[in-house]
Design goal:
Length: about 325
């Protein structure tokens, strides 16, 4: 009996250690009435929350409100999760209005800068409210195995800078007009709404070599539009010479330019722009520029999340995203 009891206690102790590896903190504009620790700013929590255990995760629970602050998740804060505690992503808004003109660089204008691997965010909004003021990022993500679920990304030009690593955006909303999804990550945008607010270019991918396993995949999504005044927009243009963007099983709004794509003065022979199973009034495969591709089911399969983002560590972004609220 004594041996069994000791074994049971040891088991309970190990379970306690496993649970203790995670750290949960709260952010809100008001102090907690129950005396619990609550940070008043998201950046305070990122800077001062206790470190999780070796395999643990920092969960930052953000109460409803608008947080007018620039947040920086450094590479020294891996496995960080931001969780909006409202009923919808619009209830928790992280906002700023920096621009390339006011900061001296596009890459200093972001409202949120994410450098930490295994970052996650759910049920909140990242916004740059500068409007038609040139480059103004809502978020910059230079991190591997990043997941965003039930998030909104609001901006005009250069809204989402997906620039490095493997990134998975699901059940989300992204708005903008000019190059508003750009960079050189391997990124999949799944079951999301991409909303075009003015004539321009939806993507500006920047792959520099065919050997790079990067590119943007817009999958099982919907491209919608605001009032464009009868003008059109392109699905993308190449920021760098070997840009790769693929739309798969996505509904396209009426104002997609018939040619679909713009070469931005690059040699289109090196650019990989493709579609598979496009639907909606903007789907027009016969009118697309001749240097773009229409993919069959087998070729499109290489761009499914598990295949395109899996990598040598066999990361399963869909399974990981399903654990988020």
């Amino acid at each position: 009996m004594k041996l069994q009891s000791m074994a049971a206690l040891c088991g309970m102790g190990l379970a306690g250690v496993a649970l203790a590896q995670d750290v949960n903190v709260e952010v809100g504009h008001d102090l907690a009435a129950d005396g619990a620790t609550r940070f008043l700013h998201i950046q305070n929590a990122l800077d001062h929350a206790p470190e999780p255990g070796p395999n643990g995760r920092l969960f930052i629970h953000i109460r409803p409100g608008t947080y007018d602050e620039r947040i920086y998740v450094s590479q020294w804060r891996p496995r960080t999760t931001l969780l909006g505690e409202g009923k919808a992503p619009a209830d928790v808004v992280i906002t700023g209005n920096k621009t390339a003109a006011t900061t001296g660089s596009t890459f200093f204008s972001e409202t949120a800068e994410i450098l930490a691997d295994d970052f996650q965010a759910a049920n909140l909004t990242f916004e740059n409210s500068a409007g038609k003021a040139g480059q103004a990022l809502a978020i910059s993500v230079t991190a591997d195995r990043a997941i965003f679920r039930h998030c909104r990304f609001l901006g005009f030009q250069d809204t989402v800078f997906a620039n490095y690593g493997r990134q998975y955006y699901v059940d989300s909303y992204i708005s903008g007009a000019v190059d508003f999804i750009f960079g050189n990550a391997a990124a999949v945008f799944d079951r999301s709404e991409i909303h075009v607010t003015a004539p321009g270019y939806l993507t500006a991918q920047s792959r520099t070599s065919d050997a790079q396993k990067t590119g943007f995949v817009i999958l099982r999504s919907k491209v919608t539009e605001g009032d464009l005044g009868g003008r059109t927009f392109a699905l993308g243009r190449p920021w760098r010479d070997h840009a790769r963007v693929v739309f798969i099983n996505t509904e396209l709004s009426p104002s997609v330019a018939p040619g679909g794509w713009n070469d931005w003065g690059k040699d289109p022979a090196h650019v990989d722009f493709a579609e598979a199973g496009s639907t909606g009034r903007g789907a027009n495969p016969d009118a697309r520029v001749k240097w773009s591709r229409q993919l069959g089911p087998e070729a499109a399969g290489a761009f499914m999340p598990a295949a395109f983002l899996g990598g040598g560590d066999h990361w399963n972004p869909e399974a990981e995203a399903a654990k988020l609220p």
